[in-house]
Amino acid sequence: MNKKTIIYGGGGFIGSHIAEGLIAEGYDVTIFDKLNFDKRNISHLGKKIKVIEGDFHNEIELKDSIKHAGIVFHLVSSTLPASSNQNPVYDAETNLISTLRLLGECVKHKIEKVIFISSGGTVYGIPEELPIKESHHRRPICSYGIIKKTIEDYLFMYNKLYNLDYNVFRLSNPYGERQNPFVAQGVIPVFLKKMINKETIEIWGDGEVTRDYIYIKDVVKAINKSINKKTPSNVYNLGSGIGYSLNEILVKINRQTGLTPKVRFQKGRDVDVPVNILDVKLLKNELNWKPETEIEQGIRITYDYLKTVLKK
Asked: How does pLDDT run across 247-281, given as a tens digit for each residue?
């Protein structure tokens, strides 16, 4: 097994934690991210990693970056679920086309495995049964989910045509240290930041939108189990298997922190699936994994982290 790995989009929240997990397992880690990206998430890794700043959409830079890798992690996304429908052409051009170039390079350089972080929250669309199994139909209602679904399908094709090994992890809603609380994605850190700063939380709908939340270090442990083996399946749901509404999350944050939320409810959005809870039995059975962090503990860890960050 080639111990050299490259994480495309590795400077972000998820990528920095994957890098930590790989280093702990003795892998050689290269992080590829955009020019002049914020390096705060990976500054503590120092010389344990190699960093490449470049353009994922530039064919030449992509070719140069992958030359010596054995395992490729694909975390790049230029859009968010809520806003992706505003410009689906841009979504396809920047995410799908660039991914096809990456897969072509993976075949050319005989990459041993591609690990793609997909979206368990968007690829299924509105579920017909809960919890959602991997075999559930995929009918996404946002461009973000459509692109993730299409990349999954191309990975299947490249596996059949070129024997490119891969794993897709349909990730639910990860949270934890280093997740950016100033953007529109990431309910738990965003709520925590607003409550710490005594800001008003705006919620689309009545607060009963329900999601599956998973602590980031549990995510990394699952991914690590897939790296150096041919897994029985290629596609896995990766979540806690438990759903909580936004209102329930606010109650749990209050109990863990003593902070009282100020909430303003807005009209619901068509792009929001009412409920999404993943069935993670396949991952548990085939890779001997289970989530270890209860949501109350994860909220407390994230809160303690954010208190130190927001003071700076």
From this structure: 999 999 999 999 999 999 999 988 889 999 999 99
- The DSSP secondary-structure symbol of 204 reads E
DSSP state of 278: B
Query: Sheet of 243-245: strands edge to edge?
Result: 173-175, 210-215, 243-245
CB 271 within 8 A of CB 207: no
Give the residue among 301, 38, 310 at the shortest CA–CA distance from 193. 310
What domains does the chain contain, in order, with CATH numbers?
A: 4-172+216-238 (3.40.50.720), 174-212+241-278+287-310 (3.90.25.10)
One-letter amino acid identity for 135? S
Q: How far is CA 221 from each of CA 11, 79, 240, rounded to the nearest angstrom?
A: 19, 26, 13
* Alpha-carbon separation of residue 115 from 81, 92, 169, 298, 299 (angstroms): 21, 20, 8, 25, 27
**Contact by Cβ (8 Å): 51, 210:** no
Closest of 236, 195, 221 to residue 293, by C-alpha:
221
Check residue 51 and report its DSSP letter: E
CB under 8 A, 24+ apart: contacts of 139-143 = 141/270, 141/271, 141/273, 142/81, 142/82, 142/84, 142/85, 142/271, 143/79, 143/84, 143/85, 143/88, 143/91, 143/92
- What are the tokens at 169? 């992890």
Structure token pair of residue 184:
């529109």
Amino acid identity of residue 69, one-letter, is A
Q: What is the pLDDT of residues 5-24, one digit of tens each?
A: 999 999 999 999 999 999 99
The amino acid at residue 264 is R
> Is 27 one of the catalytic residues?
no
The model scores a pTM over 0.85: yes
Query: Residues 8, 27, 124, 144: which is the catalytic one?
Result: 144
